[in-house]
Amino acid sequence: MALKACFQVSTIASSAAATTGTWALPAHRPFFIRDKFHLPAATGHRKSVSSPPSTSTGDDGRRSRVTCRAKKTVDEVLVVVDANWENLVAASDKPVLVEFWAPWCGPCRMIAPVIKELARDYAGKIVCCQVNTDDCPGIASRFGIRSIPTVLVFKYGEKKESVIGAVPKSTLVGVVDKYLESS
């Protein structure tokens, strides 16, 4: 019921406010834009909606209505360069999925969204990284990368498996699951 009233207020009021500066609702007194809206809550009590509910402030200083309970979990693909290879890949206590790619490579651009999905799906269980072979040829030559995209799986800093080419998500999921089960 509150949602229905909210939609009524927003559709009627938006057209009236644009022309007159006041909002008029049927069977209600006109009120100004700065007035508070009082919509019926689910329990029958009146609830003010002029200000958002109390929220927590995130790390970036902006307010957030959703509280993340796993703030330290990485759910994005990290960019690896020579300087941070040891910290992100070699010293990780979780399995690490490393994609070797280049910006000019079409198949690399096809597999990038799949790697991002894996990072979200397995957040907190694995670490997903990307190495641009144009920027970091030393890392690519160290692991014998001759074609891209190539995905390597590392566990405790040791190379365990490689997948060459733009493969479907199911192939990468199978590889990741194999190393998660043996943890």
UniProtKB/TrEMBL annotation:
<keyword id="KW-0249">Electron transport</keyword>
<dbReference type="InterPro" id="IPR005746">
    <property type="entry name" value="Thioredoxin"/>
</dbReference>
<keyword id="KW-0934">Plastid</keyword>
<keyword id="KW-0150">Chloroplast</keyword>
<keyword id="KW-0809">Transit peptide</keyword>
<protein>
    <recommendedName>
        <fullName>Thioredoxin domain-containing protein</fullName>
    </recommendedName>
</protein>
<dbReference type="InterPro" id="IPR036249">
    <property type="entry name" value="Thioredoxin-like_sf"/>
</dbReference>
<dbReference type="InterPro" id="IPR017937">
    <property type="entry name" value="Thioredoxin_CS"/>
</dbReference>
<comment type="similarity">
    <text>Belongs to the thioredoxin family. Plant M-type subfamily.</text>
</comment>
<dbReference type="Pfam" id="PF00085">
    <property type="entry name" value="Thioredoxin"/>
</dbReference>
<keyword id="KW-1015">Disulfide bond</keyword>
<feature type="domain" description="Thioredoxin">
    <location>
        <begin position="45"/>
        <end position="181"/>
    </location>
</feature>
<dbReference type="InterPro" id="IPR013766">
    <property type="entry name" value="Thioredoxin_domain"/>
</dbReference>
<dbReference type="GO" id="GO:0009507">
    <property type="term" value="C:chloroplast"/>
</dbReference>
<feature type="compositionally biased region" description="Polar residues">
    <location>
        <begin position="49"/>
        <end position="58"/>
    </location>
</feature>
<keyword id="KW-0813">Transport</keyword>
<feature type="region of interest" description="Disordered">
    <location>
        <begin position="43"/>
        <end position="65"/>
    </location>
</feature>
<dbReference type="GO" id="GO:0015035">
    <property type="term" value="F:protein-disulfide reductase activity"/>
</dbReference>
<keyword id="KW-0676">Redox-active center</keyword>
